[in-house]
């Protein structure tokens, strides 16, 4: 059995709490002989800044480059509000994405049947929901230059961020979206703002041309990103795959998270290009949520987004689709039995801790044996 190199970067706030649950699940898969892992652990975000005044060290970047997959918890928090901008905790995550070339961020939003009533929307709006946001992750306004605050002659200041996309960047993310749509309900909705942005015009033209050339069998629609946000809370089931730029994808995926009941439910996979020589791709798996400083250290965090991210690692990095199905099935079983962390429990209802949720999922994994 192949041994997979896994780098764990728990990060800050609830990151280490939810990662702790994944560690037990990884160990369980190892013990059962279902998969074999070689595990390294590193620091990222505020934790890395505290240790060596950098949001990720060169040593940990090297481990990330060498790993078959990185599991990432969350970074950030008020403790680091005043650190220099280039060393803020979030810079560690952005560097990982950029340096590993993780341009494709898959953010599935699935409403587990047992959670239809946990969403802030009516159950009939979210029941059976299964959409996939494909977010471009290494371009756009996150990385465009110039990016600066300049002091002008009159003493006032000007902040600049640059939204920038090239056709190859748009083509490769659209390709991922079309390919994935073919394995699902065969529909892609491309969200941009061509009505106000030049990058939006280029995005729409490029996606349209690629569609005509290689993917005419896939249904394609264009939607303005603001309308897409509205449609997501009006009638999300109209969507299958949504493809969009870095910033719109960040926002639309937080909206989509609430359709599933909680931000604590949404996993994600950040993938690089396939190396033609080895067939492998760099990958980092992370929950969509952040470090949740408001609940950190209280055992309240929902570990399902993190555990679901490990399931995506099993599927996309380790070719272990059956193990991924089993883990996702175990999550569904636990939710079906009524076990809830506070974020997905009915107001006033009993809720379990982060650790109890992790244990319940391991029990359900065993029961599926
Ligand atoms: P957040 O995602 O940390 O929290 C938003 C809300 O969702 C909070 O009320 C929080 O308690 C709740 N929540 C989030 N995850 C949860 C979970 N697993 N279980 C239960 N409830 C959960 O966003 P924020 O408060 O805007 O940001 C806090 C910090 O996290 C900031 O520094 C931000 O930059 C950072 N952040 C990091 C990542 C990441 O590391 N990938 C993602 C988003 C935000
Ligand atoms: C996310 C986060 C990150 C982003 C931050 C922490 C850099 O919000 O992964 O959704 O904006 O991409
Ligand atoms: Mn976000």
From TrEMBL:
Catalytic activity line of the entry: (2R,3S)-3-isopropylmalate + NAD(+) = 4-methyl-2-oxopentanoate + CO2 + NADH
Cited PROSITE patterns: IDH_IMDH
Pathway per the UniProt entry: Amino-acid biosynthesis; L-leucine biosynthesis; L-leucine from 3-methyl-2-oxobutanoate: step 3/4
Highest taxon of source: Bacteria
Alphabetical keyword list: Amino-acid biosynthesis, Branched-chain amino acid biosynthesis, Cytoplasm, Leucine biosynthesis, Magnesium, Manganese, Metal-binding, NAD, Oxidoreductase
Keyword NAD: yes
One Pfam entry name: Iso_dh
Domain Isopropylmalate dehydrogenase-like: 5-361
Chief localization: cytoplasm
UniProt-annotated site: Important for catalysis, residues: 142, 193
Record: residues binding substrate: 97, 107, 135, 226
Recorded GO MF terms: 3-isopropylmalate dehydrogenase activity
Cofactor binding note of this UniProt entry: Binds 1 Mg(2+) or Mn(2+) ion per subunit.
Binding site for NAD(+): 77-90, 290-302
Residues annotated for Mg(2+) binding in this entry: 226, 250, 254
EC number(s) on file: 1.1.1.85
Subcellular localization, as worded in the UniProt entry: Cytoplasm
NAD found in the keyword field: yes
Cofactors that this protein relies on: Mn(2+); Mg(2+)
Protein function: Catalyzes the oxidation of 3-carboxy-2-hydroxy-4-methylpentanoate (3-isopropylmalate) to 3-carboxy-4-methyl-2-oxopentanoate. The product decarboxylates to 4-methyl-2 oxopentanoate.
Similarity comment: family membership: Belongs to the isocitrate and isopropylmalate dehydrogenases family. LeuB type 1 subfamily.
Complex formation: Homodimer.
HAMAP family noted in UniProt: LeuB_type1
Matching NCBIfam families: leuB (TIGR00169)
Protein name, entry field: 3-isopropylmalate dehydrogenase
Source organism (scientific name): Bosea minatitlanensis
Lineage summary: Bacteria, Pseudomonadati, Pseudomonadota, Alphaproteobacteria, Hyphomicrobiales
């Amino acid at each position: 059995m192949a041994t997979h190199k896994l780098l764990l970067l728990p990060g800050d706030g609830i990151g280490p709490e939810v990662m702790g649950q994944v560690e037990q699940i990884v160990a369980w898969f190892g013990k059962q002989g279902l998969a074999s892992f070689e595990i390294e652990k590193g620091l990222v975000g505020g934790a890395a800044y505290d240790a060596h005044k950098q949001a990720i060290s060169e040593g940990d970047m090297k481990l990330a480059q060498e790993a078959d997959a990185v599991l990432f918890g969350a970074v950030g928090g008020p403790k680091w509000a005043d650190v220099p901008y280039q060393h803020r905790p979030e810079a560690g995550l952005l560097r990982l994405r950029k340096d590993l070339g993780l341009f494709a961020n898959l953010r599935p939003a699935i409403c587990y049947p047992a959670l239809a009533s946990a969403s802030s929307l009516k159950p009939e709006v979210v029941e059976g929901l299964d959409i996939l946001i494909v977010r471009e992750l290494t371009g756009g306004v996150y990385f465009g230059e110039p990016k600066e605050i300049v002091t002008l002659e009159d003493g006032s200041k000007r902040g600049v961020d640059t939204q920038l996309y090239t056709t190859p960047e748009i083509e490769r993310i659209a390709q991922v979206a079309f390919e994935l749509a073919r394995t699902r309900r065969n529909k892609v909705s491309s969200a941009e703002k061509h009505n106000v942005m030049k990058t939006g015009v280029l995005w729409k033209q490029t996606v349209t041309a690629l569609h005509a050339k290689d993917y005419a069998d896939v249904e394609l629609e264009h939607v303005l990103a603001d309308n897409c946000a509205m449609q997501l809370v009006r009638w999300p089931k109209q969507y299958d795959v949504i493809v969009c730029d870095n910033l719109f994808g960040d926002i639309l995926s937080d909206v989509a998270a609430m359709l599933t009941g909680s931000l604590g439910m949404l996993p994600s996979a950040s993938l690089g290009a396939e190396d033609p020589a080895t067939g492998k791709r760099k990958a980092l798996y992370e929950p969509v949520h952040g470090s949740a400083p408001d609940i950190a250290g209280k055992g309240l965090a929902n570990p399902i987004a993190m555990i679901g991210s490990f399931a995506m690692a099993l599927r996309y990095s380790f070719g272990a689709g059956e193990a991924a199905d089993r883990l996702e099935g175990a999550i569904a079983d636990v939710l079906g039995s009524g076990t809830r962390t506070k974020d997905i429990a009915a107001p006033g209802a009993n809720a379990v801790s982060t650790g109890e949720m992790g244990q319940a999922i391991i029990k359900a994994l065993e029961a599926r044996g």
